Every structure is written in structure tokens, then in C-alpha cells.
Amino acid sequence: MNTSVTKPEQHTRRFALPSFGIQVLTGLVLGVVLGLVARSMGADGVDATTGEVDPNWLTETLSTIGGTFVTLLRAVVPPLVFLAIVASIANLRDVTGAARLAWKTLAWFAATALIAVSIGIVLGLVLRPGDHTSVAAESATAPGTQGSWLDFLTGLVPANVLGLEGSAGGDGSVNLGFNVLQILVVAIAIGIATLKVGEAADPFLAFVRSALAVVQKVLWWIILLAPIATVGLLGNAVASYGWDALGSLGTFAVAIYVGLALVLLVVYPVLLRTNGLSVKQFFSGAWPAISLAFVSRSSVGTMPLTQSVTERNLGVPRAYASFAVPLGATTKMDGCASIYPAISAIFVAQFFGLDLSVTDYLLIAFVSVIGSAATAGVTGATVMLTLTLSTLGLPLEGVGLLLAIDPILDMGRTAVNVAGQALVPTIVAKREGIIDQETYDAPRGRTAWREDAPVQEPAPAAA
């Protein structure tokens, strides 16, 4: 009897898939290899009509695999954000000091952004990337999309209850997109209304919770594709961009990545240790989201996985994580909104021979800490950079100097963004005494989390 049971178990272990982290690492390696192969194959030719380069079959395949995964993730984001925030606000009635949690989250967002932008300013002054570049002056062109403080104010007002935005395509089609900031506003309003209505809202709240469970199940299926998607996303990036463009902007790229490394590998570990949290456990728990952010270059697209690992691996209660992580995905960007615009603004000033005063550096810090929310409805670090340059009165044409290597830099920027979006809820939960320390300290499973793991319910906050 015992023998017949033991053998199948051993057989299952022998052919079990490697852990999720190993699968993603394998995907990273395969992506680089296939990307280099695709790049060595060259293009299939040039379209005689449009003049665009036709990618070879391998590059096209990698692009399709990676793009499909990001599209699936983005499709889940709107219902997930809406349902999770409505449910979490309703759950906050069972959490003592909910308002305190929200304010402390925003305070930590601002504090870490201030540290990041300070590092960026120091690196810009020490390495002086604008004085060590061979980029041609004729590359200076103003971008078509610019950020402004008005974008932030108008972005807060939902165009419709779903936060959807439509744009006309060149072939007469209509493309629909979503504005995460507007979805947040709508969800917060409905969540608060649910609290105010009381018992009459119980049927609606039951529907929201049921729908959220269904969406999360679909999300689980999508996340299982992440290792395969990693091959496509990174492979396409290597095949499409390579590293040739780094030559003329080498010092600038080094400054950006040194700044990102200091924040990710020095500042964040110091904050974790200061708050009594294991650095190893944090990075092993957040790794699936950080690695996906690196290859996908999308904080919003990675947000479902960021929220999941924050709850399942880092022990942050769902009632709090489902509010803090979506908020962070739109406003917490230490890479895109702090380090990058700080070094880039200094680069532009040095390139054009303009001197920055102490007031200008303070303005850079102000825009980085406060202004990241202004770009929530208009994605992209380029928008944040134009907001910084316009605030300082620097030439917007300087943005064109940096666009050649932006995809290469964006991978590191997004990885740091997502790491910070998982870090702050974890620290706040620890300081408030609502973190599940056993979950945080537990050995990591074979996947990003166990599908059947119990959901961490909200616990009373510390007095």
C-alpha cells in the first residue's frame, strides 16, 4: 500500500517544472540568445511604400509573443483595478486607521522619490553626461507629446464611468484605451459611496467580490505564460534595438543605470533593514514582478503581478495592497519620474551650455516628488521629462537627443518603478503591524505564489 503511493509521488517530483523564478531566468537567457540571433539575421527588406524596415521572421515571432502577453495583461488591468479598489475600500471599514494607512503610503512615496531624485542630481553633476557625448546637435527635436500640470488636473476628471479613451485610427477604425488615473478616481468614489450606503450596498459588494475572484482566476492563467512571454519581450528588444546606439550616449546611459542600481540595491535594502525586514526575502518575493517589468517596460501592465506578489509573497493584506499597488503603478515611479528626469535635465542643460542654479535643482526635486502624478494619465517617461524641462525653462528639443536609447533605459527604469511599488506597501504594513510576517519569511514556492494559498484578510492596524 505504501509503495504504490510513494512511487507516483516520486515520479511527479522527478518531472516537476522548475520554480517560477528559474523559468523567468531561463526566459531571460533564451530571449537574449534568440534576440542576438534575430539581429544577426538582418531585416527582410524595406517596404517600398512606407520605407519601413521589414523585420525577419524570428523578430516578428518574438514581437508577436511578447506583444500578445502585454495585451492580455493590459486587458485585465481595468476590471482588476476597479473591482479591487472598490472591494478594498469597503473592506477598510474593518481596518483601524485606514486614513492613516493612505497618508503614510503617500508620505513614503514622496520620501523615496526625494531620495531617488537626489541621487540623480548628484550623478548628473559628478558624471556630467552632457559634456561627454558625441550625439549630433541636429538630433535635437521637440517631442510630439508633452507633459503639463494641466494634464494632471484634467486627467482627474473621468470622461466616462469606465475611464475609457477612444482615438481614431488612420484606417477609420476606433482604438480604445484606458486611463488608470480616471479608473482610480471612479473606483474610489464608488467605494466610498458603498461605505456610506451601508447595508443597502451589500448585494452590490457581494457582486464586486465575486467578479474580483473571477478576474483574479483569469489573471492567474495569464501569469503562467510569463516565462514564455519573457523570451518574446526581451528577444524583440535585443533584436530591434541592440546596443549600438549606446556609443554616443554612453556616459548618460551609465549615469542612469548607476542611479537605478543605487536605488534598487542600496537605498531599498537600507530601508528594508531599517524596518526589520529581510532584504533577501523581499527581492525573492518581488522578483517575478521586477523581472516582468524589466522586459515588458510597463508598470501598468505589470501591476496585476505586482499586486499578487505583494499579497502572496510579501504578506501585505489584500485590503491595503489592492489600494496601494494600483495607486503606486500610476504615481510611484522612482526610475521614470525621479532618476531619469533629473539626470536628463542636467544633461540637456550641459549640452546647450546652460547653467542651473540651486533653485533649478530644487525645482527638479519638486517636480519629481509631486509631478509624477501629473503624468499618470499620459504614460511614458518622455512626458515626465518634458514636464521637468518646461518647468525649468530648458529647451524641449533636448528630448530628441535621448530618444535613440530610450527603450534600453526604459527596461531598468520600469524595473525600479515596480520594485518601489511593492516596497512601500510592504514597509507601511510592517510599521503598522498588519503584515503577515510568516508569509514574508516563508520559503518561496515553485511559482510566483500558490494558487490555492489563503488570501490575507485585513487585520486591525496597530494603535
UniProtKB/TrEMBL annotation:
<keyword id="KW-0813">Transport</keyword>
<dbReference type="InterPro" id="IPR001991">
    <property type="entry name" value="Na-dicarboxylate_symporter"/>
</dbReference>
<feature type="transmembrane region" description="Helical">
    <location>
        <begin position="218"/>
        <end position="243"/>
    </location>
</feature>
<feature type="transmembrane region" description="Helical">
    <location>
        <begin position="20"/>
        <end position="42"/>
    </location>
</feature>
<keyword id="KW-1003">Cell membrane</keyword>
<feature type="transmembrane region" description="Helical">
    <location>
        <begin position="361"/>
        <end position="378"/>
    </location>
</feature>
<feature type="transmembrane region" description="Helical">
    <location>
        <begin position="337"/>
        <end position="354"/>
    </location>
</feature>
<feature type="transmembrane region" description="Helical">
    <location>
        <begin position="106"/>
        <end position="127"/>
    </location>
</feature>
<feature type="transmembrane region" description="Helical">
    <location>
        <begin position="62"/>
        <end position="86"/>
    </location>
</feature>
<keyword id="KW-0812">Transmembrane</keyword>
<dbReference type="GO" id="GO:0015293">
    <property type="term" value="F:symporter activity"/>
</dbReference>
<dbReference type="GO" id="GO:0006835">
    <property type="term" value="P:dicarboxylic acid transport"/>
</dbReference>
<feature type="transmembrane region" description="Helical">
    <location>
        <begin position="176"/>
        <end position="197"/>
    </location>
</feature>
<dbReference type="InterPro" id="IPR036458">
    <property type="entry name" value="Na:dicarbo_symporter_sf"/>
</dbReference>
<dbReference type="GO" id="GO:0005886">
    <property type="term" value="C:plasma membrane"/>
</dbReference>
<keyword id="KW-1133">Transmembrane helix</keyword>
<protein>
    <submittedName>
        <fullName>Dicarboxylate/amino acid:cation symporter</fullName>
    </submittedName>
</protein>
<keyword id="KW-0472">Membrane</keyword>
<feature type="transmembrane region" description="Helical">
    <location>
        <begin position="249"/>
        <end position="270"/>
    </location>
</feature>
<dbReference type="Pfam" id="PF00375">
    <property type="entry name" value="SDF"/>
</dbReference>
